[in-house]
């Protein structure tokens, strides 16, 4: 049986400063988003879903539905719906297949002990998505449609939000250009989709990850697309990622494109270090580093916890020296998928340096991780109003 209906959602809406992903004071007015709902006639049986969700790993298991919204220059955003997840039909001349006009986001839905479902700062994802669209010269999706699509999908696929310590439902909003035309110009048609995938931890195991410092490749240059969350940035990181794997590392650290000296970030996550005195340092945003929402949350949360949080340029040679002398005692990667993952060591052509003993999570990393996860999972009080309850 194919069930059809409509969802009228109250979408909480807040204000942003221009181009800033950070929230200003809460404004708290509500916008309506209207989604047509078309449910699958072949939902995954409950027992099979439970098996799939037992150990989902990362990004291979998907829910039964997806949210879709179309854009054309004539109609603007239209045809918002939740529909069965299925392959797309795309003309081989579709612009995205040739010039890569594509952007995406990544965020998680969490299930609290009492069964309630919540998101974490999804307005910041909406704002960053709009900023990425501007950089890639794509149509901007209004914030209430971004949030509405996620909420509508969660209503239909709510059973797929796992409970349990390290589990969550990873949400992948993305947008492709979709005009049938081989000329190079910004497309006049776009497709916005949200997929959902139950996930466990991103890195198997709990020891520190070994990280390769790439001295051959860079990720982003001033004026480039480093600050946009676009697929192209990831395509160019795959070769350095392979170089990392050949050197026994699971992630790459990129240096600045000008001097190959200052630390930017990793392929898909930001990076932070802990000094002997307990202060936490990370490179400042400057156009080449992706504005991680996890990064921003840790900086604010750390300050709230009384830690000294510093943003300053970090010379890779100084970091190697400071780690060797014990001046820097911990390093960690941070991002939605990775949460906070301890880094065990840095490797480069000229040598290796370990952080702490290279295997155990340092005390400051652990404190920050527990505080952040407690907030996200609703076991800690939320002074920042970051938790976004979902009506599902
Ligand atoms: C998504 C991403 C991050 C992390 O951002 P979060 O908002 O914390 O998930 C960091 N670096 C890059 C390159 C990214 O694409």
What does this structure look like?
This protein is α+β, with helices and mostly antiparallel strands and 392 residues long. It has two domains: 2-201, Aminotransferase class 4, branched-chain amino acid transferase, N-terminal domain (D-amino Acid Aminotransferase, Chain A, domain 1); 209-376, D-amino Acid Aminotransferase, Chain A, domain 2 (Alpha-Beta Barrel). Helix content is 23%, strand content 31%. Strand 17 and strand 18 (351-354) form a beta hairpin. Bound molecules: pyridoxal-5'-phosphate.
Mean pLDDT: 91
Count, helices: 9
Which CATH top level class of the largest domain fits?
Alpha Beta
CATH superfamily grouping of the largest domain: Aminotransferase class 4, branched-chain amino acid transferase, N-terminal domain
Total strand count, please? 19
Structural class, from helix and strand content?
alpha+beta
End-to-end Cα distance: 22 Å
Residue share in helices? 10-25%
User: In total, how many domains does the architecture comprise?
Assistant: 2
């Amino acid at each position: 049986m194919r069930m059809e209906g409509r969802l009228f959602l109250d979408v909480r809406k807040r204000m942003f400063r221009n181009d800033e992903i950070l929230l200003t004071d809460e404004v708290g007015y509500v916008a309506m988003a209207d989604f047509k709902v078309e449910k699958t006639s072949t939902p995954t049986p409950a027992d099979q879903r439970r098996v799939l969700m037992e150990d989902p790993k990362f990004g291979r298991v998907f829910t039964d539905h997806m949210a879709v919204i179309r854009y054309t220059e004539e109609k603007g955003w239209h045809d918002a719906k939740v529909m069965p997840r299925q392959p797309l039909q795309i003309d081989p001349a579709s612009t995205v297949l040739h010039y890569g006009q594509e952007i995406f986001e990544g965020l998680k839905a969490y299930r609290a002990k009492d069964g309630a479902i919540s998101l974490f700062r999804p307005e910041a994802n909406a704002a960053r998505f709009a900023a990425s669209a501007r950089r890639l010269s794509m149509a901007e999706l209004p914030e209430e449609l971004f949030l509405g699509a996620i909420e509508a999908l969660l209503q239909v696929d709510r059973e797929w939000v796992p409970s349990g310590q390290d589990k969550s439902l990873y949400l992948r909003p993305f947008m492709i250009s979709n005009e049938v035309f081989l000329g190079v110009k910004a497309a006049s048609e776009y497709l916005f989709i949200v997929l959902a995938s139950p996930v466990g931890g991103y890195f198997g195991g709990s020891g520190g990850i070994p990280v390769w410092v790439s001295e051959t490749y860079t990720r982003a240059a001033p004026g480039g697309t480093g600050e946009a969350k676009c697929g192209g940035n990831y395509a160019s990181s795959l070769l350095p990622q392979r170089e990392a794997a050949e050197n026994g590392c699971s992630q790459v650290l990129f240096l600045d494109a000008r001097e190959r000296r200052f630390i930017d970030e990793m392929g898909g996550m930001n990076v932070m270090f802990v000094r002997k005195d307990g202060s936490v340092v990370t490179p400042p945003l400057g156009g080449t580093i992706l504005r991680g929402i996890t990064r921003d949350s840790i900086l604010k949360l750390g300050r709230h916890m009384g830690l000294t949080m510093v943003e300053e340029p970090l010379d890779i040679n100084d970091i190697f020296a400071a780690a060797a002398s014990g001046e820097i005692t911990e390093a960690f990667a941070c991002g939605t998928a990775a949460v906070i993952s301890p880094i065990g060591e840095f490797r480069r052509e000229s040598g290796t340096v370990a952080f702490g003993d290279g295997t155990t999570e340092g005390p400051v990393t652990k404190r920050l991780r527990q505080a952040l996860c407690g907030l996200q999972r609703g076991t800690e009080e939320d002074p920042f109003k970051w938790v976004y309850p979902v009506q599902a």
